[in-house]
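Researcher: Here's my situation. A collaborator sent me these components and asked whether they could plausibly form a single complex. I don't have experimental data yet, so a predicted model of the whole assembly would be a useful starting point for our discussion.
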Amino acid sequence: MIERAPMWRIRLYQLIVLGVFLGGWEWVSDRYIRTLWISKPSLIAERTVEWFSSGFIYSHILATLQIAGLGLLIGTAIGVVFGIVLGLQRSLSHLLDPILGGAYTMPRIAFLPVVLFWFGFGSRPMVALVVLMTFFVLFFNTRAGVESVKGDLVASMRVMGATRLQVIRMVILPSIVPFILAAMMIAAPYALVGAIVAEIFIGSKGLGFLIVSSTGDLDLTGTFTACLVVTVISLIATLVIARHGPRLLGRSPETIGGGAAAAF
Amino acid sequence: MINITGVSKSFEKDGEKIDAVKDFSLTINDGEFVALIGPSGCGKSTVLNMIAGLLAPEEGVVEYNGERVTAINTSVGYMTQKDSLLPWRTTEGNISAPLDIRRVPKPERAALVSQAIEKVRLGGFERHHPDELSGGMRKRVLLARTLIYEPDTLLMDEPFAALDALLKLVMQEELLRIWSEARATVVYVTHDLTEAISIADRIVVFSKRPGRIVLDLPVELERPRDFDTIRTSPEFLKLYNRVWATLRHEVVSQEEVSGEGR
Amino acid sequence: MLSSRSGTTFARFLIVAGIVVAWDLAGRTIIDPFYISRPSDVAERLWDWVSTGYIVEHVLTTMAEIVYGLVIGVVLGVLVAVILSSSPTLAAVFSPFATVAYSFPQVALIPLYILWFGVFLMPKVVLVAVVVFFLMFFNTFEGVKNVEGGLIAAMRVMGAKRLDVFRIVVLPASAVFLITGLRHAVPFALRAAVFAEFIASVRGLGFLALTSARSYSSAGLFATLMVLLVVGVGLNALVSWLERVVLPWRSAGVDVAAAMQR
């Protein structure tokens, strides 16, 4: 018999697994490994409450979300423009394909020193990194959206006397909106990771900065608490997108790229 | 002989309990070709899964040849709509899987496999992988794999549903040709009435969920059946109208209750 | 046909040449070469690194981090996923934990690994392994769950014991997931290694890029990016070759998970 256990038993097992993990951590800490090196769940819980009740954490969350959001918007704008242009210029797009593909396989994170070099310090290089991380998803999906527009439709519009610009406004733009929205949903976790990674590297506030500065101060309770906050934010984003995404789109176009926050 | 007595089985879906079958009983005799037909989601597949021992009933008993089914029933062959071929094995390798499991010696295996391949007319495709075969060919491989260990009973869950209408007809004829030699018991789940009448000895019509039997009718059409003429014969039409009257009621009332359905 | 293809290749070559020329011109006219260097400077720097053998040490360091991390992450990820998904209950129990772990950006833990494991090879291998582990685990977990449904039930009905299922289905399927997963994981391993080197390192391509940037050498920076591109393309080619050797039946572009769901 290869049936699944009933739901209540699965929930029970999950509680046990969680209990064993947290309990084991708590128990090992300071008995076998010094708390300094691994902290412990009770301390993390305490710190979480402290950060939220004192309001300390909000400015950091806001800082990270600002960089992620701004980068995503700029990345979307650039990606959409390039996507429309190359979507309409198929032969140019075909010629550029291997070059774009090559650029796409290049680890975006490797451009961290480049954006540093070009944009100096502050939030500009961090936003630039997020732009780099989100651009390709938006570009490829927008282009796919433009290419999915039926040639007949465009032809019939032209026959009716529409100019190229009118075709773009009346046919192309409305039909790529779902593609752009879907791509933004895929890119959202990338943006978050990009912001955190940039903050770890050069931030002076934000969740990534909290992770790296706490670790530097040997305050691992702070490190894990910051990680917990990151996980919850990214989980909320994932769940909201999974639940409301399809409805928001009305229909879900085939998207290019994807994966969750593990991607960066 | 398969004896199902007073069986109930339910599922959880989105936290809701749904009865697939409730207090369900059915007896199938050896050598019989029985078609189970009914609206989608009426518990036909659940019944097959219980005969195969893949699901345990919550209430009631499933007996196979007088013995209660409590573990996976390896005397049956099971062919599902979803094709369960191993993508990394060739036609030969896939067909010989049951022999591999039964530890049949290699030389003997090869002979049996080439016989089976001939039976389902797949000569020339021995070394092809499933990805290189058409939908109909994959069904032939599945059929050969199911028949090769000579199970007493074949459980078939809409095996040809994914095929186009013409290919489906060809496969049904093939099945009957092979069955007329093997003479196994067949329990054939379908929601295609024409298919059910053309191939079965007996038609069991399920109600909408939870599944009950609303009609149990013998098909007294002569064998071997000629697919070219059978579908227009008066006996066929009479049976068709009779079963459809019952089935239609179930399908329509299911649509009204759930608003789903196709 | 052929002439149009070679025409395309020629046009692409022209585009690349055009980019290089534009880069050079921009450096002479509108943009200070301090920021974007010059193609000739980058080429000179590359030649210098290659001819003196200076680059070898850095490439090997980064490669070692990637290869060790990949091997550990891929093997453990596939193994744990196969074990957890061998029973539907176990899979259901761990699936929310997997979702949580997957939605956490694993790279963010690099400061911690450096604290725990020092600044040399170890923390990078750990980071690469962890990133690859979760990637592989999640993909395999989803993939194997699909295999479980169809293939394993089919094998069990054919009489397969747990060990047979392991030998006939789980093991070959794992090999498939291992290889296809490797293709998926390589770019992520590269990124993880480079990022870890940015945070703390004494050699490697990430170190080279960073020190170039810190000493305001844009030629060094872009030369490193070129090397990184070559390493990435090389690793991809290696995996493709491995895939062709180990999984010859898998014609390119066939989605295994989809093939298994069929």
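Model: Some features of this prediction you could bring to your collaborator: The mean pLDDT of chain B is 87. The two ends of chain B are 34 Å apart (CA to CA).
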